[in-house]
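Hey,
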Amino acid sequence: MNGGRLIALLSVLDACALLKFGTVGRTQLVKIVYLVETLRPVYASWTRAYDFVKYRYGPYSERIGHDLDLLLMHGLVTATSFERTGRRVRARYEITRIGSESIRVQDRTEVTIVRSLAVDVVWCLQGLGIETAREICDLVYCEPSFAAELARMGTEPGSPDQAPRLRSSFDPTHESFQLQSVLAEFGRRQSAEHWSRPRDLTRAYFVALGRTGARKHAASREAE
């Protein structure tokens, strides 16, 4: 059992419950966890809990499904709906009272950081009206490391091609781990008081991704 992975999953589900985000589908959960993992450097957290492959509907981690099953088995998470069709699983999840208590009583620095990061990511998504699986996927498609890999592969979102794994250990040359310096520079160009918190930078980053997506959509329509 990998404690770091389970902490990340429980933190996201606890944030969804805390902020009344509602139950979360598997696709939503995987994409939110991906955004949390991507933004770790902004919160001075340098080790990722999950590896992802760039799959047909965005970044994907098979391990998240396995860990969800483990959390379900131990009563830390519950499935409010569940349907299996062949190999495809459609389900919605929420953290249980025991699950919330298990994550909130931990006072280790890394756990506190991940919990704060998860709350900020969910809060920013909710505040920007980005809540459905489709909306979150659209945002993820504009994330630099994912968008760069799509361009390198010459593929579009939704294609079945897979790209190399994102490494879980700290790699300062990886696009995602350059976020801290990029967003720090972005913050320096704004009001120091307004951009003093990681949450502010996280929200600004999502707004920038959303604008990128809107520009791509407009350009695509003009080309038709």
